[in-house]
Amino acid sequence: SIRSRGMMSVGSNGSHSGWRLALPLLLLAAKSAGASMIAPSFETFLQHGLGSWQGVGFTWFPEAPDEPSLPVAVAPGYITMPIECSSEVSEVMRSCGGAVQGVREVRQPSGGEVTLNRQAEGTTFFSYGTWAEAPAALGGADGDDILGSSLGFGVSVNIAHSDQTRRRLLLVIVDGKLAACDVAIEARPETPLPECGAGLLAKRLQVVVDANSWEGGATRLSLVGRPPAGGQWSNMRVKWEEQVAAVEGNTPLLPREATFLPGGCWARVEDGGSADGLGGGLLVEVGSLSVEAGGGKTVSHAF
Question: Within 10 Å of residue 90's Cβ, how many Cβ atoms?
């Protein structure tokens, strides 16, 4: 890594970027003590999440796929050829009228449509445009719910940054390992796409594999939630707690073992892993660093 003039130093595959602030955000399923109570605001999420997004997308595989691809090189894996993509996010109203029930994302060029219901178990919205969707619980190998089987399941995370950009990742997890990952790096139409995304269209891969806090230290904000005792994850019933901690200077901010992806993103799937008190079972972590926003965020699920 290098020393930046701001508050974070970052090492990547030949291109280094200075950071001013590091505020990783932990978001899901844990127990904590001595923290203030706070709940994400769905109304604020809508203010930041609705509307048009455009950018670039690709799919990561651990081995070379049977289609044109690029090696990540500084980290394991290959990505499909990056292509332009876009999303249109709109409100979904309750059938009986009145309140907004969730959001609908229509994505191009696939033409796919994803509906996120804030009352659905396993779906969580956060105040500034971030959301996550995962199985509310993992069943056994012979379970009836194939989407929530411990043998194979998906976790979808959208991390929104303060610079009007977002990183959208869909993880496919098989036998406790990351088998594939769809990634989209998007910005508002009036906002320039981050260099890590614009470079992808020119086949320039920027992969951040190391980042340290500035020597003067930084602040870490964690928003931690847990369902009622014995219950499954439901955004409407989760108890939330906010934790604020000081980060010493030169502290590593990225996990040692993770799948590092172009665009400043990473994914970590670890049996028995831990993150800020999460862990004990299967840990699934998704993270994103934004040079333009001057910060980083993570979303972690513990099953």
Answer: 11
State residue 142's pLDDT score.
Answer: 53
DSSP 105: E
Tell me: pLDDT of 33 over 70. no
Alpha carbon distance 35, 26 (integer Å): 14
Q: What is the pLDDT of residues 121-135, one digit of tens each?
A: 889 999 899 999 998
Place of tokens 């993509």: 85
Give Cβ neighbours of residue 47 (< 8 Å, ≥ 6 apart): none
Burial class (CB in 10 A: 0-12, 13-18, 19+), 15: middle
What CA–CA distance (Å, rounded) separates 74 from 62? 13
Strand partners, 285: 268, 300
Q: Tell me whether strands 78-80 and 69-71 are parallel, antiparallel or unpaired.
A: antiparallel
Question: Where does 69-202 show beta strands of DSSP type E?
Answer: 69-71, 78-80, 83-93, 100-108, 113-117, 123-125, 131-133, 148-149, 152-160, 165-174, 177-187
For the segment 59-72, the average pLDDT, to the nearest whole number, is 97
Tokens, residue 192 = 């320039």
**Which residues fall within 8 angstroms of residue 247, CB to CB, at 6 or more apart?**
22, 213, 217, 218, 219, 220, 253
CA distances from 20 to 24, 149, 206 (A): 13, 41, 19
What is the mean pLDDT of the segment spanning 156-173? 96
Task: Return the amino acid letter for 273.
Answer: G
